[in-house]
Input
Amino acid sequence: MLELLSNIPELATLASHATHGHGAEGAAAGAAEAAHAVGAAIAGSGNKLFLLIPLLPLLSMALCGLYWAFGVKSKLPAWTTVGLLGASFGLTILAYFEIAAPGVTQIVHGFRWIGIDLSPHQEGGLELIANFGLYLDSLTILWMLFVTGLATLIALYASEYMAHDVGPGYCRFFFAFSLFVFAMSALVMGDNLLMLYLGWEGVGLCSYLLIGYFFTKPSAVAAAKKAFIMNRIGDLGLAIGIMMTFVQFGTIEYAGIFEQVDAIRASGGELPFAVKAIPLLLMVGAFGKSAQLPLYTWLPDAMEGPTPVSALIHAATMVTAGVYLIARTYPLYTLNPTALVIVAWVGGLTALLAATIGMAQYDIKRIMAYSTVSQLGYMFLGLGVLSSAGAAFHVFTHAFFKATLFLCCGAVMHGFAGQLDLRKLSGVWGMKGWRIVSVAMLIGCLNLAGFPLTAGYFSKDMILAEAFVTPGFAVLGWIALITAGLTAYYTFRVWFRVFMGPGEFEPGDEHHGDAEDEMTAEDGHDNHAGHGGHGGSSFHPHPPKWAINTVLAILAVGSLAVVGVYFIDTEHHGWVGGLVHDSTAHYESPFVHHGAAAHEIAGAHGAEASGAELAPGTFLGFDPHEALFFASGIIGAIGILIAAFLHGPTGFGGLFIGARTEAATSRADGLKRTFAPVGKWAERKWYVDELYDFLFRIPLWVLAHICYLFDRFIIDGIVDGLAKTPRGVGSGLRPSQNGLLQSYAVGMAGGLAFILLVIWVVL
Amino acid sequence: MTLALAAGGSEIIERLHYLHPEMALFAATCVVMVLGLSKSLAARKSAAIVTGLGLIAAAWLSLRSPGAETEALKEAILPGVMPYAKTLIAVMGLLALPMLTGVVDRAYERDVARGRAFDPLRATRGEFYAFFLFSLTGVMLCVTADDLIWIFLALELTSLPTYIMVAMSSGRLRAQEAAVKYFFLGAFSAAIFLYGFALIYGVMGTTSLPEIRNALAQSDELNPMLLLGFILAIVGVSFKIAAVPMHFYTPDVYQGAATSVAGYLAFAPKAAGILVLIMLVSVLGWTHGATGITLPAEIRVTLWVMAALTMTVGNVLALLQDNVKRMLAYSSVAHSGYMLVGLIAGPGREGDAATSGLAAALFYLLSYSVMTLGAFAAIASLEKRTIKGEMVEVELLSDLNSVCRTYPAVGWSLVVCALSLLGMPPLFGFFGKLALFTSAWEANEKILVVVLAINSAVAAFYYLRIAAAALFEERDEFEDRLALGPAPWRRLTAVAGAAGVVGLALFVSPLLRGSGDATQLGSQQTFIAGVDAENRPAQGIVNPSIAATIRADAEREQP
Output
């Protein structure tokens, strides 16, 4: 370890501090103490079987590619994908019992991917090493469990959802889907930052491919490009961050980095700015991928992709990559507290902003997209206030309920020919064949709204409480609490508008699956009410069949059931907390306290750490950990009640306080007039897109045109001129080839004389 | 001969086995000459087969030629060159053989088949294959030669048969004209290099190359007359490789000769010329100039000017051609220029073929031969029917329009060979060019690298024109109808050439290593003028830094 350190000039002094202060053994012991998980890791000793977790999706991708090449026109790609991803999930469960349950760390060495000796003439010099290897600890396993698990389920869902496109499109879909799972596995499981970067770019590519799946649709293409470009901005930060990590630490392998971070922390001392900048740069990447301010605008547009994609990539897994990145490199963040403050503020503000926009949208998928942005904001807030366990728990619960919500929206969209406008859908609950969807949607909404005793309620509370506990973040705590109320409102706005009330609908303009229409024709008739007029005469909604229903049922039950994990391992705030505690993402917050005794210790710790008298914050004088269970519950309920009042239907024996009797009108419209200007701004997404357009696109457009003109007239002019030269020279030389023997002989003799002349002149 | 004279009696026998491949070819030549006169059609037809067998035997014997490990060859200029270069020549001869089928006696054999009495005096088939073998024997002798007189004889043995092959390749007047031009200009160039040889002999008093080399290594300064002799020799010999200013004949002769013979001209004399040039400049060695690691300045300038002009003139004139044969003729001129770059770069670092310009030149000769034979054979496989109903050779670029659709095998072979000539990765030609680039860069000939790069870009234009015509151009109904020629074997050369440029790309590193071994300089070559015996570096070291150190040491000791 110290050898490594001594290669890096900036850190060498720190390392020597460590050596003088504690002695080499002391530093090593400190390292082992601070990160017990790393201490258990022995490089390359892991179970090679786990290499199959990323490789099975890769195999699935290859097979789908072959199907594509051979023009398979069946559901074979779907079954291949489901099978292989399921096997991958099985292996992940195996990995859970081998690694996460006992809380050890394994490093599995695959093969040497990149090895560049940067100082070849020097023994033991700087070498860039990136293995295709896995860094498996409980954090990795936690992520992989829901990545592979949800991917399998959503592939099953997509087998039916994409059925209208069986053929090349179907193969292409599952090709990109499998590639995504591979890239996500590489991102999560890689044992170095370059593997993470490989996966990072890979998921970005798949996201691009899948958002633009309907590539004949201009808006889909534009959305795909937007997602790609916005992510590039973030990726630049990540790339520079990785390079800086290599320059500063001499390695990009997690194990090596963490060891050095522990040594630095043990030694204390001022850090060079370059080291402190690393978390700031990595953070930019995380903001891009996880759609945080200011790079969030791509995610709502990404809803142009097929819904299973939105559910898997843009809700459950890929967008949490930013959270994973910060959690994975948490030791680096603990070196620079400012970075965590920024993370917390960006998260909190994004949560609030996205929630306000979500309140004013009409497209239900878009509302869900904004809710994703908002919930991701919560996760960043959690990371920022040192509650990595809370953030991870929220990622975990969110993955379930958000996937459920998206798949329900997808089922609705699938059944109503692409209709997503909540003003044109009503009372789906009452329609035949839609009960499973409705119940699943309700469960998802309750979770998202943080209804008491749901999983979403507990995971959100962990973050909220921590925000109040950590001194200086109380303002963010209040913002997050208000956002919780707004979330409850817009979530149930969707629920009451679409699923409750009189059964009315206006179909969208995507007619497919005519055979299914005929089958369900008789059922559909009852549901036609007043509004379903134009286009509806020949259209009947087709409720989902077994694949979609099964997946929705599993996910809904799962969303409810994950609440259970909160009560396992209560010492660490639930099972997820326990997993995070065993990983490097764990950092003992001075303000986290498990009971009264720990309270005082933690308080003293905090005072010692910061060198000032900082006591844990309170919530209006109460202990936030208990008070917020009530506060957020009440706020959530208020939000739901307001939604019910404004958008809810009449009926159910006066159970509902709403007064909506048809699809479109509601009390909200009256209110909207009152708040017209604000509502308009929120509906137009606070004009952020327009602002970016003005700030970046227009200047770039002007610059591009200047460059174009320069290129067209100056560069091209020169190049064209140059291109004419050889021909000109050739035409000049041509007469020398006149076919006459004597002139050739003269030419030869003259050439010889010319050469001799040149020699005479030159020398 | 001279070699035998110089050696003792027992060495004559020993040295005879250097000549085994040549003897095999000569034996085959004798049989072929007789077979061609036979009254039996089957016997006449077997002439080509015997030629092939002779080449196979020569190739096998070449592989077993004595190499660098032979004690008697330690003193030679290029001790390891024989197995590699002779095998290359024999194998390329085998590749060219199918292309040369059906060139002569087609009309006469038709008459004989119709019942006309066979007159041996009118038949030329045997002679044609015999001249082919003679000239290949000459190329091989260029490799064996270690004496100026031998070199002269070997070069002429290479060239004289080709003059006749051009003349007899077609009944048209054009071929006669081409042959006469070729002969006179060839004789003129021979006069030039022979004069150069005479000057070298005049200064050194010997015609033996190892002796000249050893004598030069002992002396600090080079006699101006000697340098003039070398310049004349290099310029004269460069007629064989069609380098500027000795290139004038190329387009006229290639156009006048039958396409098959033009293809052969693009290979055999060039191989002989480049091998002789490598040997001649190796006699001088790369231990001269201001840095002590280049050729003598005068020779370097000569080669530099020739290389730059040859590349440029070849490529820009090829740009203007609509006649594919002329285009390929100019392209062959340009490729000679590329090979000269390797000669200027020199042997590079000891034991590192990747930095050796000589290895690169020899390797480029190999890749160039495969692809140029393939390209010429593809064109030779085709014929077109004129409005008068005559079957004539394909010559114009527009004749090749959409050939990939009508005759895919021929068309694609042509496209692949053209792309390889252009240096498109991952084809064989690319690696040849890459080796030249790296060696010239290592030798600090950066300007030449730039010239080479610009020329490669210019060359892309006309090679892509060939590829585009074959692939994309539509064929008008009123254009001459394309047909496969009457000699189906020619397609074998085309396809084998194309397969070669694809397949050999997989064996680049052993082949490059082989040409590196073949161009290792002999033992005396390492002497650096002005450095005393103790400081004499190990064999073949031309590492700039070491040479510079030695020079600095020498300077320090002087006062």
About this structure: Chain B has one domain: 21-104+118-528. Strands of chain B lie at 382-385, 391-393, 481-484.
